[in-house]
Amino acid sequence: MPAAEPDPAAARVAVVGAGPIGAGWAIAFARAGLAVALHDVDRDRLAAGRELVEARLADLREHGLLAEGPAAVAARVEPVADLGDALAGAGHVQECAPERLELKRELFARLDALAPGAVLASSSSAITASAFAADLAGRGRCLVAHPANPPFLLPVVEVVPAPFTEAAAVERTVALLRAAGMRPVRLRRELEGFAFNRLQGALLREAYRLVAADVLDVDEVDALVRDGLGRRWALTGPFENADLNVEGGIVAHAERMGAAYARMGAEHGERGEWDAELVARVAAQRRALLPRERRGERIEWRDRALMELDRLLEGL
Ligand SMILES: NC(=O)c1ccc[n+]([C@@H]2O[C@H](COP(=O)([O-])OP(=O)(O)OC[C@H]3O[C@@H](n4cnc5c(N)ncnc54)[C@H](O)[C@@H]3O)[C@@H](O)[C@H]2O)c1
Questions:
Q1: 180: CATH
Q2: How many domains in the chain?
Q3: 251 and 177 in a common domain
Q4: Boundary residue ending a domain (122, 157, 186)
């Protein structure tokens, strides 16, 4: 594994698979000034992916989100029908083929052989690098970089190394993603669903339960998230939200709400109560991020930002 590249923004990127995720990555990388080779086994899908890139770049420009003309950015995305040609000179490969284990296994074996110096990152939503890259000579270069959909509008990316992934591959990926304006979140180990879909799944499981119990209809569940929880979550995560919502922060929130949340979980056989040591750990991390004396200022910021959001949403 070569040492981390000095200038990740200078690297050429190959995107393999030109569906919505591949096209979305191509936009994100090209918008940041990177040269992108976009490849697909299916020529029609490749052409459609390239058209999607052009259409979304025009939309971005219309919304004031593109510093250059869309044609100049689109010119950095080269559709390449041959896999070997697409990989030539690439420092990073972003695999975006369908979510099928056998397919990813075979494809990664080819990527390993054809792109010996590159980091090989999969967009996989759920399949771990351990499952598709364990037998490869170059497995130290393999990992998951799971985007949210669409990748050019939602900047978060989960970077998930397998136990065999080399630290340099993780560092290079994180540096590249940052250079591309993305916000990588590095998981310390692989686990099913990674973290994004675990959080999403927890909410969706409860949403299904509320419909199953005939407490709410589908649109009523969506309204609670769309018009309430989701608006706050656009600005703060669940921990910051708990910290800001109760005078006294995380510890006071856990004292007030912890037992009730534990009972709700127990209805479905969940344990995982918030013990004092865990709550103290969360509180300490929050205090390092936001000292107690700045809590009021942060609440004011949140409320003003919610006003901005309200104004934007009114126009939609
Ligand atoms: N859709 C989402 O919300 C989402 C979000 C994050 C990550 N992902 C993951 O990203 C990946 C791609 O998702 P998608 O929704 O764009 O999939 P998709 O099935 O719509 O597109 C995949 C593309 O890959 C092409 N392809 C198939 N075999 C190939 C090969 N051997 N080499 C090159 N190209 C090949 C197909 O022709 C197709 O155009 C999946 O692993 C998916 O789980 C999806």
A1: 3.40.50.720
A2: 2
A3: no
A4: 186
HSE-up (13 A, CA, CB side) for residue 139: 14
**Which of 15, 41, 80, 105 has most ligand 1 atoms within 8 Å of its beta carbon, as the pocket-test mutant?**
41
Q: What does the alpha-carbon distance between residue 252 and residue 247 come to, in Å, rounded to a whole number?
A: 7
Q: Which of 27, 38, 40, 149, when mutated, tests ligand 1's pocket best, judged by the most ligand atoms within 8 Å of its CB?
A: 40
Mean pLDDT of 166-173: 98
Distance CA 98, CA 42 (A): 12
pLDDT at position 227 over 60:
yes
User: Does the residue 241 lie in any domain?
Assistant: yes
| pLDDT at residue 159 tops 70 | yes
Q: Are residues 101 and 229 in the same domain?
A: no
Beta bridge partners of 77: 36
Does 147 share its domain with 230?
no
| CB proximity list for 152: less than 8 A, separation 6 or greater | 24, 25, 27, 28, 31, 56, 60
Q: Domain span at residue 257?
A: 198-314
Q: Are residues 175 and 253 in the same domain?
A: no
Tokens 């559709």 sit at which residue?
A: 79
State pTM to two decimals: 0.94
Give pLDDT tens digits for 46-93. 999 999 999 999 999 999 999 999 999 999 999 999 999 999 999 999
- Rounded to an integer, what distance in angstroms lies between the CA atom of residue 243 and that of residue 262? 18
